[in-house]
Structure formats: C-alpha cells, structure tokens
Design a protein that fits this description.
Number of helices: 14
Number of domains: 2
Distance between the termini: 53 Å
Oligomer: single chain
Number of strands: 11
Structural class: alpha/beta
CATH architecture of the largest domain: 3-Layer(aba) Sandwich
Length: about 350
C-alpha cells in the first residue's frame, strides 16, 4: 500500500471524525445525501466506518434521481442501492419528472434541481425521524462557491460561502462535515478502499458557470497567480464567518431592542433605537429581519439596503417600494414594513 495514500486516507477519516464530533452528531440519526458520485460515496463509507466511534444510532441514505440524465441516472440509483445493501444501510429513493422540473425552473434548471433535492431530503428526514441531513460538499465546492459569489457580486454572506450547518426546520438541520476536506484526499480515500462511484458528465459541461470556475478559472489562478489560492479563499471564508457571527449577534440585539410590533406581513421598528448604532450595523440588522420574516432577499441589491438605511437619516423620500412587494414607510419615529403580497413573500 503506498504510504501517501495511507496518510491521506487517515487524514480524511480523522478530519471527518473531528468535523462530525464538532457538529455534535452523537446520539442523533443522520440522513446521508448520496448521489453515487465520488464525494457522496466517500461520505457514505466514511460515516459508516465511524458509526460506532461517534455513537450514531441510525444512518439512512437518500438518493434523488432528477430524471435529467436518462439511463445514466438510473444506473446511479442502482449503484447507490448496491452500496447501501453491502453496508447494511437502509436507503430511500425518489425520482423527479424531468418535464415538471424544467417547467418549474424559471430559467435556472440547476436551481430547480437543487430545490427538489433539498425538499426530498427534508421530507425523507422527517418521515424517518433523522434530525440531521449530511451532504458531501467539500473544500473545492467551498472555494468555487465563494468565487462564484464574487463574480456575481456579493456581500459578506457570499464571502462566507457554504455554511457548515443550517437549520431547515424545527426538527431537521443540514450539516456539511467535509467542507474543509480537499478533493485529492477524498480521491485517495476512494482509491484505498476500492470504492466504486459514478461519473456525472454534467460535471464537465462548461455551459454551467460553476464548471467553468472549477475547470478553467481555479486552475488558471493556481497556475498563473497563486498555487495556494484555494487555501487563501478558504481562509477568507473562515474569517468572514467569524466576523458575521459578531455582526449577527449585534444585529439581533438591535432588532430585539427596536421591534415594536411584528406579524408575518408587518413589522414596526423604533427609529430612535435604530439610529443609536452605525449605519452598517443597521443595514445588517435589516438583512437579519428579512431572514426572520422569511421575506425574499435574492432581489435585494446593495443599493436597496443602502436606500433603506438611508431613510433613517435622510427624510426624503419617506417611503420605499422594495422587491417582493415590501413597502417601507418612515412615520416620525416609526419605521414600518409591510409585505403586501403574501404569496410572493413566502417564495
């Protein structure tokens, strides 16, 4: 056995164990999202091997065939089924109607597929009583996501990249225990244990922006500018997460002090409490408010957030119409938000 592979395999399992321990998985059931690809198959085998050490009482695999790859998608499902049978792990399978998925995509089939996948995973986790859902996103995915966000134009949350954990509902939480594990370590682990995995041709299709970042931009940055660019991007993500944690705490406290009235469609804030804080903290508090209210943030640009906080310091205009049919009005010492189309705001 080559020593380099043995060392990398040990690093993979050690990192996976450390990450899962930090994520407090002991005593909790886990639903593993298993596509059949290299990364998710490494996650499946790694978690099963660590099961007793980490005291994981229940493991289940979930596989969704998006129906977009014909026979290849069916082959992936059979590969996952065979792997789970050999490991003694129960698995749940589902398949999308490709036509319906394309119809619901609203121009982004990738987004529609992602939404369908997480809907399936959340439903499956709730049905089987597993409070945790684990995906196989890894260090390269994190670097690609951050670069993608920078290219599109992003704020601090985009520089944070993919969060390691995210609450999906009162009963389910999404965890990503491989975010700091590098692609070559995963591949060497796969080699060591002779793990069979499926190759998805869409991962090399450069019509997708993410694939161009993976296959063209990142290699160019590594070859022409900085061989350690991925590590640099990951450090930026870690530093941003630390900063965001502090900002989130300050913003949540500011909102708690400022909210006078709140319903799903309406929120009234005390202007005097708000203006005691710097404008960047106020803007951040507004982003937290949007998340708490489940109002759509995707169409909110930096200009929208700036104009919104500017209402507090520059009286004209005294009202704003914002994306998602959110109406904002300044009424003396009261700042009122109203979501006028509930169906849009719930999207």
């Amino acid at each position: 056995m080559p020593s380099s592979i043995s060392s990398s395999s040990s690093r993979f399992e050690n990192q996976l164990e450390q990450n899962l321990s930090r994520l407090n998985v002991a005593g909790q059931g886990i639903l593993l999202a298993v596509s059949g690809g290299r990364d998710s198959m490494a996650l499946l085998h790694g978690v099963v091997r660590l099961r007793e050490k980490l005291q994981i009482p229940h493991i289940i695999a979930g596989h969704l065939n998006h129906g977009l790859r014909g026979e290849a998608g069916g082959n992936d499902a059979e590969l996952v089924r065979a792997a789970c049978m050999s490991l003694g792990i129960p698995a749940v399978f589902s398949q999308c109607n490709a036509g319906e998925l394309e119809h619901s995509s609203r121009g982004s089939l990738e987004d529609a597929a992602r939404t369908a996948r997480y809907d399936f995973l959340q439903t499956t986790a709730q049905q089987h009583g597993t409070p945790l859902i684990a995906t196989a996103h890894h260090a390269s995915d994190q670097a690609e996501t951050i670069l993608h966000n920078i290219i599109r134009g992003t704020g601090l949350r985009g520089l944070r990249g993919i969060p390691e954990r995210r609450k999906l509902s009162d009963s389910t939480e999404l965890i990503r225990p491989m975010l700091n594990i590098k692609s070559d370590e995963i591949y060497e682990y796969i080699q060591l244990h002779d793990i069979i995995f499926a190759s998805d041709e869409t991962n090399i299709d450069n019509n997708f922006t993410r694939n161009r970042i993976r296959h063209q931009l990142l290699p160019m940055l590594e070859n022409d500018f900085n061989p350690g660019v991925q590590d640099s991007v990951l450090r930026l993500s870690e530093q941003t997460q630390e900063l965001l944690a502090s900002l989130d705490a300050a913003a949540e406290l500011l909102l708690a002090e400022s909210v006078l009235e709140r319903t799903p469609d309406l929120c009234k804030l005390d202007v005097q409490q708000l203006i005691r804080h710097p404008e960047p903290v106020i803007r951040h508090a507004f982003t937290i408010l949007w998340m708490q209210q489940n109002w759509p943030r995707r169409e909110m640009s930096s200009d929208h957030w700036n104009r919104l906080s500017g209402l507090l310091f520059r009286l004209p205009p005294a009202s704003l119409d914002l994306p998602g049919s959110i109406r904002t009005e300044l009424r003396g010492n009261l700042l009122a938000f109203e979501c006028r189309r509930q169906s849009k705001c719930d999207s």
